[in-house]
Amino acid sequence: MSKLAAQPLYRQVLREVMAAIEAGEWDEDESLPSETDLAKRFGVSQGTVRKALDALVADAVLYRRQGVGTFVAGTSDFLLRGLFTTPAGADGVKPSVELLSCVKIHAGEQLAEILGLRRAAALWQVRRLLRVGGQVIGLEEMLLPEANFPSLEMRRIRELKGNLRELCWRDFGVRLKDGQVRYRAVLAGQTEARLLMTDVNEPLLQLVRLAVDFEGRPQVWSVAWLRTEELAFEPPVLSPQV
Amino acid sequence: MSKLAAQPLYRQVLREVMAAIEAGEWDEDESLPSETDLAKRFGVSQGTVRKALDALVADAVLYRRQGVGTFVAGTSDFLLRGLFTTPAGADGVKPSVELLSCVKIHAGEQLAEILGLRRAAALWQVRRLLRVGGQVIGLEEMLLPEANFPSLEMRRIRELKGNLRELCWRDFGVRLKDGQVRYRAVLAGQTEARLLMTDVNEPLLQLVRLAVDFEGRPQVWSVAWLRTEELAFEPPVLSPQV
DNA sequence: AAGTGGTCTAGACCACGGA
DNA sequence: CCGTGGTCTAGACCACTTC
Known about the structure:
Chains A, B: This is GntR family transcriptional regulator. The first copy, chain A, is α+β, with helices and mostly antiparallel strands. Chain A contains eight helices and ten strands.
């Protein structure tokens, strides 16, 4: 591996590993070669491989089991990874997702700027419903540039049980990770109330997030409205205690 | 430094560094000795010191400036560190804090369990108001075990401009960091509406958090109610891209 | 016992920022 | 220029899991 590049070595190793994952060299939950073997393969030391893997573990691309190996992590959806816990605490429950609609729209000024597109650029607008045990608790609207995700078929989304993050990965090779997240409290309007099967003016937790790819480029904009009467939202903890 | 301890070496170094900070060896925004000097002092290698400092940087105890040094970070309050941004994005604004009240109460069953105390244990209940440019946008109630923070004087809190986290640090040597955080959307009740100088039934972002010390022990329980009509809440990002 | 992640060293060099 | 953080190596040993 060349030392001439502008990036540090472990960054290059990281990209090589990502490329290998993209190429399907190791399946989900399949173990990678050991750190020492990867070191030989890339012509670097074990410490450098480790630093690269550290970063991928922090981004939940990989996970490790001491004494066993390093494994490729699944791509659960962002909302599926956040825990929904009762206000008192304990028993986090994971929701399931149902696809509502998937249509093509134009970006408009604000979204174009956020996603770095032209104003007339085409976007997929995907609406999904979140359920916990049959109960509807959330509505999410995602916006994806058509240029990066050319053919989003509803059938395909349904096949993956509504998991758009997995679809972006499997069909378009884009591994998304969280960028910024913003929280607000809003009142349900008529549209939200109807889709969430609740009342107008119910308080909803609004979650606005920008997902980026592994080069940090903005990729997906999303807004979610969550009912939190019975279940509070708890964001996933990446890289817990060091 | 002994190799016999159950903990890895870099953990011991981390504790030594924390102890030195607690002892006031280096002031806020003052630079620590270089990594190589610290390595000599603790009798370990530079790489080990670095790993310890990495963890403290991730927890925002220290910050680094390449080519310059490693510095002790300030202890801004949790809410002061979260950004308040306009829904459209950009211009994050930091709020100031005003102390409302500070009284002693009994823990009760739930809080006792969360904080690992007896049910009759005494707690300080501190209420604070958050302002952005004169406008009241938040109300926070914190609960601190009296055993750990024996004398919480209102005067002292005011001296530190309402920054309870700094007080816990300066007066009691407890450096707090975020544990779990949970989000909900609720409607303002009469009490909240009065204190926030707004209307009943305004949607409020409710933020429930548990702060822990550096050994991971629960220390402070807090609930905040935030108005997010004009400003969204954006949690602080620790350890961004690796 | 063998193989994995996890830690640690001693020494080296690079990239950056301030004098 | 020097001193700082930031990276990297080759080799070693430990702790854990599995066989």
